[in-house]
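Fig. S4 source data, part A: sequence.
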Amino acid sequence: MNFLLVIIALMPLFMAHSAFFPYISGKVMLLRFVVAVVSIWFFVSLIRKRSFRDTMSEKFITLCKNPIFFSLSAYFVVFTLTTFFAVNPYWAFWGSIERGEGVVGMLFFFGFFLFTLLLFQKKDWLSFFKLSMITAIILLIDAMGEAFKGEVRPASFTGHPTYLGAYFIFVMFMASILWQNTRRNERVWEIISIVMIPLSFLGIFITKTRGALIGIMAGFFITLVYLTLFGKDVKWKRFHLRHLSIAFLAFLVLFSGIFIATRQHPLWQAIPGLNRLAVISSKDATTQSRLLTYKVALRAVDPKEGNLDKLLVGWGADNFSIAWNTFYDPRIYMYDPTTLDRAHNKVLDTLVMNGILGLITYLAIWFFSFKVVFGREEIEYRPDLIFFGVSYFVQNLFVFDSVVTYIPFFVFLSFLILLQLTKKA
């Protein structure tokens, strides 16, 4: 079963060329096929093997006591219940072919999350990370090829540069963990993991995804602040990181100050990624359209607009476009004529589609995750967990999740819970 779950690491590469949305459909089919096969195999093993049944039962009872697992489970319960109150229950339950989400789609992601929690050990995650690293190398080579051919914002096999940028954040996280776990006879993986950290950073710049760029800057900043304060007690490859963190933090602050003060300079316009950050302002077309969209999202759940029920339980999963069209602000058309089915802000997406109950349970997941990551209890890979957690959460304030980025999210949570339970054991 474990090796099937590891195969999901290849999901970003899968495409269905004959489908309406080839970049989404191929990945969705792989995920659902693997999780379905694992589900059958898992339940047959439960029936046939008493030792397996006892082990899984003990693990599940332990998981139910974990706040992160409980919060995520509560979020899925609320996510499912809001379907009964959705404006379009069909979309809410089955999802759209363009996104592959809905209750059914998210159930498979939850299945992946649950099975990895029950079946994976650290060695399985390292195998998953190694296969993901191969995936990342292919994505990076393909993206660089697209950029060389003149593509302004390459997306490779993911279908959109924002998905690719977010995925490279995950690659940096995995590469660091692999590097810390390479053995003497794994020189190749040590080299690959070391090289992929800066290359993933380069990949984010190539995609010119502002959300991912802001996310990694926030992730680096918070991680460096943490290591500056507590680095003397944090070991990474037998090194104490306080002094190194202070130097990097000073450089980051200095660079950010210079960039903000001189962002109109032609030098920044010539650097991919930074050129898009440099134009962010209240007059920027993308910024204006996003701010107006955020106002539309808030109106959709505003009790003063007669939407008290929508504030509580939302419009339903994959129903954001209905809310957006209902409260559409014509001024948006001046900046962006496209129709939106997401708010480009995960928090607002959750509020509009799943209501305040969904938002509370979603934020609870992050609250308990950060409580572990920033807590006083000893846990492995704390700097890496801080970096990815902060980077992913912040970048999602400017974009939204997709089938490509959901896997890193659930991997992060599952891996974090494993580290937490392993420590306690």
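Fig. S4 source data, part B ends here. DSSP finds 20 helices and two strands in the chain.
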